[in-house]
Design a protein that fits this description.
The complex is a heterodimer of chains A (243) and B (370). With 243 residues, chain A is α/β, with parallel strands linked by helices. Chain A is built from eight helices and twelve strands. In chain A, the strands form three sheets. Chain A has a six-stranded mixed sheet, with helices on both faces. In chain A, α5 runs parallel beside α6. The relative contact order of chain B is 0.10. Classes of the chains: A alpha/beta (243), B mainly beta (370).
Amino acid sequence: MLRIEDLHVEIGGREVLHDINLHISEGETHVLMGPNGSGKTTLIRTIMGFGDYHVTGGAILYRGRDITNLPIHERARYGIGLMFQRPPTIAGLKLGKMLVATSGNRPEEVAEYAAAMNMAEFLDRDINAGFSGGEIKRSEVLQLMIQQPDFVMLDEPESGVDLENISLIGSAIAKLLEKDRHIVSRHKSGLIITHTGYILDYIETDGGHMMCDGEIRCHGNAREMLQLIKAKGYRECIECKKI
Amino acid sequence: MQKNIEELESLSAEDKKRLAVTGLEVDSFNRCGSFFQIDQEIVYSSCEYEGIEILTLEGALAKYAWMEQYYWKLVEKDRDEYTRYVAQQAHPKGYVVIAKKGSKNVLPLQTCLFLAHESIQHVHNIIIAEEGAELHLISGCASSASTQHGAHYGVTEFYVGKNAQISTTMIHTWGREIEVYPRSAARVEENGTFLSNYVAMSPVKNVQMYPVAELVGEGAVARFNSVVVAMPGSCLDLGSRAILSAKDTSAELISRAITRGGTMIARAHILGEVEDTKGHIECKGLILEDGIIHAVPEIEGWVTGTELSHEAAVGKIAREEIEYLMSRGLDEDEATATIIRGFLDVKIEGLPDMLQKQIDAAIDAAESGF
């Protein structure tokens, strides 16, 4: 579904991602790990197409189509979605109005999904204004439920979230990724950035990737890699270059 | 109630549309009464609601001797050349609305001032809400699409009695070469509430106004809200002032301004004269195309125990906000329009839903492309 080939990315004239290669098949969910500042968020924001990230080499292929130079909204319309770690506050714009604007021909789903995410009373509030950590994440998941992307990128979905909310958010994300379906009939794919791995209690994953200094250093089983990091920290990863 | 205002039938389709944007209901549906003045001719004045009387100004002065107590008492005749012009008229035009003690209009009273041919339209309006009355007004002011030049001078005096409320929602649709000089003032007595809302989304040459609310009775409240767009060639010098003269009075002055190349001066002034008073000013501006937004919020306290604050911000739409909405599938223009619409979305406390919807509709119908 997503194939990244020899990708190089600059921000402000400085190369921050070096020769990234990544392949995620249809129905698979992968995990991206790495220390702070290693380039994880940069990678998913580059996949989404944000303006500050300049691709200087390589390509991003989605469903076989080269999307490297497409504008953000076209990538979204092709089926790529992003759960932001720190989304902006938009003064005056009500969450409900934004959801209706992005719901296409399905505005009636807004109330239903909002209730499911305990966000009904937030529909009349400015987007993200004064939201707690858990409320921001619920709002992000709600937006993705409306958007229904085929490829879901999640930037630290559990950060700042209490245990009660993580259960709700984890279950909703699992549904977004069609984890309730048999693997043969599952079409949605995902890429999750996580430091703690708490979210993996709710979502089965298919592969893990370790990033350091703007490079993907190794691939493997996500749970094993996280256990190793928990036991020994990132020090060995920084020193090691397996691939 | 349905009552056609016959003179409207003679207007062009385009002019009817311009009036509809200002909130005018031609058949008076959803209105408790109407006043309609074309240039200097009062073509319709009627209110069928028992507790509310609408008269022409001349008619009111002839009918009620006590009207002199309200005539030119809040706005000074000699204030400027525009008030002097209105004061010099042998046959003053405009309307008087009297909401009798304890009355309440669920449906708003509509007033419409239409500039069709004359070079200067002048009006003098007096609005009185007696003790315990609740009066909602929607005032549409527009010029004909065929009127190239002209001016509107309007004096309005609002008297809000004890425990009474007046809400006035004014929607303007003037032309590119029209100059507009409203001169308004309100006096609010004990536990009275005065709400003043102003929407102007279309091009105009000049609008200059600085209405003032004097809160003279304990517990009186004033709220001014304005939502305006300064188009190229437009100069909007808009302000509002609240004078907190009695204990437990409060005021809120809120403006949202956008420039697409025109000039907008957003003035606001709250004066806390006595203790236990509160006031807040919020001026927010978006510069979409090179133009001027000049916010001048002033807070002035004379005693301990008055709490006054202001916030003012002028800027552009953050790229991050546009990209956020684009990541949900909106293209750049759709994302920008959605953010602008949100910026202009002011929910007005205490305003009936019908009038809030009218304001929303006026903003939605803006010619300026969002």
